Automatic annotation (TrEMBL):
This is Universal stress protein. InterPro entries: Rossmann-like_a/b/a_fold (IPR014729). SUPFAM superfamilies: Adenine nucleotide alpha hydrolases-like. It comes from Pseudonocardia bannensis. It comes from the Bacteria.
Length: 139
């Protein structure tokens, strides 16, 4: 993901808004993966399965905070927030207050990603009329 953002920063003035879905504990599920289990919808296998919605929100906040710190440390101008568990709704809410040139969807590999299986990137592009870049993470 950093490479994609770096390309945009090098091309000219850029800023980014990171939206992390605030998924309830009931909507997490664990899928088998090589070498262990991957809790969904997290972007890393070390979060575990939350016991409550409050814990799920705390995990989402940790992911957001980590991403904001990492991107800021890399010199990227970035803001962010937690959004709806429904990514289309979350994006719609952010677009109500801001304008963007592009939407970047970062997701898990296809075998784990509910977003890719639901064709979210194409849904986003059709609904919001903005170019969409999909970044498939390694974990």
């Amino acid at each position: 993901m950093r490479d994609e953002l770096r390309k945009r920063v090098e091309a000219g003035p850029s800023s980014f808004f990171v939206l992390v879905p605030n998924t309830s504990a009931a909507h997490y599920h664990v899928v088998p993966a090589a070498g262990g289990l991957v809790p969904m919808p997290s972007m890393a296998a070390d979060y575990g399965r939350p016991e409550s919605d409050e814990e799920a929100t705390a995990l989402a906040r940790q992911r957001l905070d980590r991403m904001l710190v990492d991107l800021s440390a890399a010199g990227v101008k970035v803001e962010g927030n937690l959004g709806s568990a429904n990514p289309l709704e979350g994006i719609d809410n952010v677009l109500a207050d801001r304008q963007f040139d592009e939407i970047i969807v970062a997701t898990l590999p296809h075998r784990f990603s509910r977003w890719l299986k639901a064709d979210l990137p194409n849904q986003v592009e059709r609904r919001f009329g903005l170019p969409v870049t999909t970044i498939v993470t390694k974990r």
